[in-house]
Design goal:
Elements: H1 2-21, E1 23-39, E2 44-55, E3 61-76, E4 79-90, E5 100-115, E6 118-135, E7 138-158, E8 169-181, E9 190-204, E10 207-219, E11 225-241
Parallel strand pairs: 1-11
Antiparallel strand pairs: 1-2, 2-3, 3-4, 4-5, 5-6, 6-7, 7-8, 8-9, 9-10, 10-11
Length: 257
């Protein structure tokens, strides 16, 4: 019994020590985004999304901008392959007093599932991240590189009789998990998890407005520091169908954090 108690005490001390080594950074941010998917033919289309992210009590300072474009191949109306490029600018944050540019090629498979009273959107995305290195608060000509994979699932549940028709309101539950890998990743294989809950207003058959709350939990490159982030998120989505005879059924709702 004494040996068991000693072992439990030792494990408790180890647990307390490990917890003491972890540091948590609390953030409040606001994310604004505009998204567009344009379909030119039965097989081809484009993807565009633009983001402005603010932080420090939600709106007091710039945090990040993202511009992402892609070319989409439609296997079917509900299964799509996209490849493209994103430019990300990280504004000065904490000890980093200058901005950090990032170049990010990306590839994705996206698919939709329709239920009688719900819609489900899922994707798996692979990113190749090239971030300009910073030494002594000066940008160098070298880049850090790693891969990141992302799985995203979004469930749309209609709350009004209009459902997915114009004027309808939907509840959106969205979660995305991201994992890092590559030879330069040592401590933060888990990158982040984004959990969102909010409302969707169907402006017209091709446009939606999303608004709500997102909780982001992220492990930073040090491995022992975590970002606990509370976020107000407002996104606008628009779809164009430029085919000569587009289908009469409105496009499936789409979400893309």
């Amino acid at each position: 019994m004494k040996r068991l108690l000693s072992s439990l005490g030792f494990l408790l001390l180890l647990s307390q020590h490990a917890t003491a080594q972890k540091q948590y950074v609390r953030e409040q941010q606001t994310w604004l985004g505009v998204f567009n998917q344009t379909r030119f033919s039965n097989r081809w289309g484009t993807w565009t999304d633009l983001h402005l992210r603010l932080h420090d009590h939600y709106v007091q300072d710039l945090f990040q901008t993202v511009a992402r474009v892609g070319l989409t191949y439609y296997l079917t109306d509900d299964v799509r392959l996209t490849g493209g490029y994103a430019y990300v600018h990280h504004f000065p944050d904490g000890a980093r007093t200058i901005g950090q540019p990032e170049h990010r090629p990306w590839q994705q498979v996206q698919w939709f599932t329709k239920f009688p009273k719900a819609r489900l959107m899922q994707w798996v995305r692979l990113e190749e991240r090239f971030r300009r290195t910073i030494q002594s608060n000066e940008r160098t000509d070298e880049f850090n590189f790693n891969y990141r994979t992302r799985y995203n699932a979004a469930l749309f549940l209609p709350l009004t009789k209009k459902g997915f028709a114009p004027g309808g309101v939907q509840f959106l539950l969205n979660n995305e998990v991201m994992m890092n890998f590559g030879k330069e990743i040592r401590l933060n294989y888990f990158d982040q998890n984004r959990l969102f809950a909010g409302l969707v207003y169907q402006l017209n058959p091709h446009a939606q407005l999303h608004g709500g709350y997102m909780h982001l939990f992220q492990q930073l490159p040090t491995g022992s520091t975590y970002r606990n982030q509370h976020t107000i998120r407002v996104f606008y989505f628009h779809n164009f169908d430029l085919r000569p005879t587009p289908p009469p059924v409105p496009p499936t709702p789409t979400t893309a954090p």
